[in-house]
Amino acid sequence: MSATIDPNLDNFSTEDPGARAPLVLGDLDYNGVTESVTAIWESEKPPKIGFLILGVALSLLVMLGGCIGHLLMKGVGVWGNNNPAYWGWPIVNFVFWVGIGHAGTLISAILFLFRQDWRTSINRAAEAMTIFAVVCAGMFPGIHIGRVWAFYWLFPIPTEHLAMWPNFRSPLLWDVFAVSTYATVSLLFWYMGMVPDIATFRDRCKNKWKKMAYGLLSLGWTGSARHWHRYEMAYTILAALATPLVLSVHTIVSFDFAVSQLPGWHTTIFPPYFVAGAIFSGFAMVVTLLVPVRKILKLENLITIRHLENMNKIIIATGLMVGTAYGVEFFIAWYSGVANEQFAFINRAFGKYWWAYWIMVTCNVVIPQLFWFKKIRTTPWMMVVVCIFVNIGMWFERFVITITSLCSDFLPSSWAYFTPTPVDIMMLIGSFGLFTTLFLLFCRFLPVIAISEVKNVMPESHHPDHGHHDHGDGDHENGDDAEVAPAH
Amino acid sequence: MAEEQNTNETRLVGMLAQFDDPHTLVAACDNARQFGYEKMDAYSPFPVHGIDPALGISRTKLPFIVLAIGLGAVAIGLGMQYYTNAADWSPIFPGYAFKISGKPIFSLPANIPVTFEVIVLSSAFATFFGMWGLNKLPMFANPLHRISRFRRATNDKFFLMIESADGKFDEEQIRGQFNSWGATAIEECREDLTDQKLPQFVWVAALIAAFMLILPPVLIYRAVGMTNEQPRMHFMPDMDWQDKFKTQVMSPNLSNEGGKDYLFMDLRAMRAQIPGTIARGDSTSLGEYETGVQEDSIAAYLSGEVYTGLAAQDEDAPAEPDWITGFPEGVTVDEDLLTRGRERFNIYCSACHGYSGNGDGLVNQRAVALNLSGSAAWTAAKSLHDPEVKNSETNPVGRIFDTISNGRGTMGPYRDQIPVEDRWAIVAYVKALQETGIEPPAAEEAAAADGAATEE
C-alpha cells in the first residue's frame, strides 16, 4: 500500500471484509499526530472563516446578554409563558440543550468502557460540546426562576432568614442535583483527560506568558509512568461513574414531566425515551460540529470517515428507538383506555399543534432513514444536512411534549394557544451564539483531539512480540504493512 | 540553554536517557529493574503498556479510596435528605418537616435519585483529587522541565531516569548501560540550587494577601453584637420597598441639594378629596331618598338622637325618627320596579325570609332546627306577613327601607350590598307581597321558635 492513505477510506474499502479502516490515516507518526492537532493553535494566522463565525457568534451572544438583562429588569413576563403554558420555550430549550449534552459523556465514558477505540479522536470535542451545551441548558432554568439572585435556594444551604430547605421529594429538585452533578463530573472528566495534552501545548509554547498559563493548567505533568498508572485508573473509575450518571440525567429530566399527572406526560416510557432522544440529538450535534471542524482544522487524518460513519450508525439506531417510542406512546394511550390520555395524543398529532408534531416526525423518524444509504452516511455535507434536520426535530419533540400537553389539559375552559414572544426567539438563537463562542474558543486554545489517547491506539504503540491486541480493531503496522491485521 | 550550563550550584538529580519508541523503553526499564535499580521512573507521551511490571509499579489504592468515599456518600446523601425534610429537632438550622401532596415525610424511593447523584459526585471528586494527590501534583518546580530535550516527553520521545538517590547510582556505569539498552540520547538532570529561594516580593505579596483575607472575618466579628441604627443592608430589594405613600406621612423632598422641593407643597403625602366627593355618612347630602326619614328628622337621625338599627328594640332606645310613609321622590312604583324588587329580594332576602316572605327560607329553617336541638343560637326571621310588620302605621315604608339599610334586631345591615334604588325596589316588592294575603305561621309555632331562642 502506498504511504499516504486515502482520507476517504471507509469501513469497507480494504479488501479483507473482516478488517476495519485504520483510526489514523495519512501515515502519521507520533509527532505527526501532535503537529496535526497543534497546527491551528500554533499558527499565526488562524483561518479567516473562524473569525467570521466568531463574529456572528459573539453578536448573538451579545443579543442573548441583552435579552437576559431585559428579563432580569422586567421579569419573566417578557417570555410567552402564560396560563396555561407556564413552561414555555425556556424549558423546551433546557431539555433540548441537556439532551445535546449527552453525547460527549456517552462517547467518553460508555464507549471507553466498551473499548471502542474509535472514540479517541472525537471524544475531546464531544466532551467540550457536552459542557458548553450544559452551560446553555443550565442557563434557562437558572433565569426561569424569576428572582435569579435567590438561585441558591435551589441548594440545601442552611440560611437563617429562610429557615427552609428544598423539597427532596420533588423531581424538580432531583433535576437540580442531576444537572449540576453532570456538569461537574463532565468538567472534571474533560479537564483530567486534557491535562497530558495541555502539557504537550506547554512544551511547545514559545511565549513566556502562554507557557505560564498552560504550565499552570497542566499541573506540572511530566508523563511519569507512575502518574500514568494512577491516571488510567482514575480515568476508568470516572468512566464507570459517568456511565450511570449520563443515563440518570435525562431520566431525571424526564421525571420532571412523567411524575406529574398531565395527560401526555404521565407515562413510564419517558426515561428510556428521553435518554434515547438525548443520545440521538447529541450525536447529531457532534457530527454537525465535527464535519466543519475537521475540514477547517485539517484533521481529516484523525477524524476519519470511519468515525463519522460510526456516529451516523448510532444516529440511525437511536432514531429508530425514538420513532418506536412515538408509536408506543400512541398505543399505550389507546390501550390505557383513559379518555384524557387518548385525547392528548390525538390532539398532539391532529390538534392545533399538528404542524409541530409532523415536523418532529419528519425530522426524527423519516429523514434519518437516509443513513441506510452508504453514500449519504459517508459523505460529510450530506450527513450534516441530515443531522441538522435531526436537531430541528429534537427541538420540536421537546416543544410538542411541553406545549401540547400544557395547552390542552383537563379543563377545556383554560385551553389556550401558546405564542412565543420575540425575546423567546432571540434567546434560543442567542443560546446558539453562546454555545458557538465557547466551542470556537475551545478549538482555538485547547487540544481539540485527545492527542495522548490517539497515540495510545496507534499500532506502533503496541509491541509486536507481546501480542497485546486489546486494541485489536485499530491494529496495523504503519502504512506498508497494510492495516488488515484482524482483531485477535 | 542557560540553565543547563549553570553548574555553579547544582545538584545531580539523576541520569536521563531518551528512547525513540515505547518498546525499547519497556525493555530498558526491564533491564534496569533486573540490574537492581529501584529509584527510577519512565516518562512517555501516552501510557505505555507493560511498563508497570517492567518498572515494578504496584497497583494504586485509588479504587479503595473512591469506594470508601462513595459508601460514605450514601450516608451523607440519605442523611442530608432525612435531616432537611424529616427532622426538626435541631436548635440551629433545623430541618423542616413539611407534608406536601400527601407524600410521606421520608420515603426511600423518592430519595434515591438525589442519593445517587451525591454518590456519583463525591466519588468523582474523590477520583479526581485522589489521583492528583497520590501523584503529588500539581508540582510546578521540577528539574526535568529545565531540560529542553525533555519537552518531547509529551510529544514523541520516551525517557527513563535513574535517580541519584538510588543506592546503585553510578554516573559512568549508567551511561554505558543506557547506550547498550538503545538510548538515543543521554543527559544529566540537574537541580539548580541558586534560585530555590522565593523572591522577596512573593513574601510581601503573601503577607498582604493574608492580611486582606483576615480583614473580612475581623470586621464580621466586630459587627457581631454591635448596635446600629441603620436599616439592614438589602442587596436585592425584591419588593420590600415600593414607590408609594401611606397616609399621614410627609411629602417627600425631591431636592438633592438640601433645598426644599416637596412633591406636594402642603408637605402632606395624602391628598385632599376631589371636589364633589361624598363621604360616607355625610349628612349634608342625604335626603329622604337615601334614608327613608322625613326631611326634618334627618339631622337628628344622623346625629344619633333618634335611634335606628340594631339596638332599636332596647327599652332605653330613643324615639324613632319620623319615617316617610310613602315612596320618596325619584322612586316610581311600576312593574319594572317590582320585577327588579322580586329579583333582588330572591337574591338577598329569600334565604331567611323565604320566597313568599313568610320567614321560611332554607337558612332560617335549618337554623331554627339547630336552635331547637340546642346546637346553635338563632333568632327566627320574621314573617313579613306578621301583623306587626304589615302595620303601615308603626312600620311605614321608610322604616322598612331603614331595616334593609341598617338591619334590625339580629338582622344585619345590607346598605353595602344593595344600592339605594334596589333597596326601594325591594321595599316596593315587600309591600306587594304583603298584599297577597298570605297567612303568617301559627302563633304557637312562632312562640316555640321564640321560646327556644330565649332559652339559649
| Main sheet record of chain A | none
Number of helices of chain A: 16
Shape of chain A: globular
Q: Main β-sheet of chain B: number of strands, strand sense, barrel status?
A: 4 strands, antiparallel
From the structure provided, what is the oligomeric state, counting identical versus distinct chains?
heterodimer
Mean pLDDT reading of chain B: 85
- Tell me the number of strands of chain B: 4
End-to-end gap of chain A:
22 Å
Low-confidence stretches of chain B: 451-456
Task: Provide the gyration radius of chain B in Å.
Answer: 49 Å
Structural class of chain A: mainly alpha
Provide the residue-averaged pLDDT of chain A: 87
Helix content, binned percent of chain A: 55-70%
Shape of chain B: elongated
Widest sheet: strand ordering of chain B: 2-3-1-4
Task: Kindly provide the radius of gyration of chain A, computed on alpha-carbon positions and rounded to a whole number of angstroms.
Answer: 24 Å
Topology record:
The complex is a heterodimer of chains A (488) and B (456).
Chain A: H1 30-42, H2 48-74, H3 89-100, H4 102-113, H5 123-144, H6 171-204, H7 208-217, H8 225-258, H9 270-296, H10 305-336, H11 339-350, H12 354-366, H13 374-378, H14 380-407, H15 422-445, H16 451-456
Chain B: H1 2-5, E1 10-19, H2 22-35, E2 40-43, H3 51-55, H4 62-86, H5 108-134, E3 158-163, H6 171-180, E4 185-192, H7 200-223, H8 288-291, H9 298-303, H10 335-348, H11 350-353, H12 362-372, H13 387-390, H14 397-406, H15 420-434, H16 443-455
Antiparallel strand pairs in B: 1-3, 1-4, 2-3
Task: Describe the overall structure.
- Chain A contains 16 helices and no strands.
- By secondary structure, chain A is an all-alpha fold.
- Chain B contains 16 helices and 4 strands.
- Chain B is elongated, with a radius of gyration of 49 Å.
- In chain B, 29% of the residues are buried.
- The chains are: A mainly alpha (488), B alpha+beta (456).
- Chains A and B meet through α1, α6, α8 and α16 of A and α2, β2, α3, α4 and α5 of B.
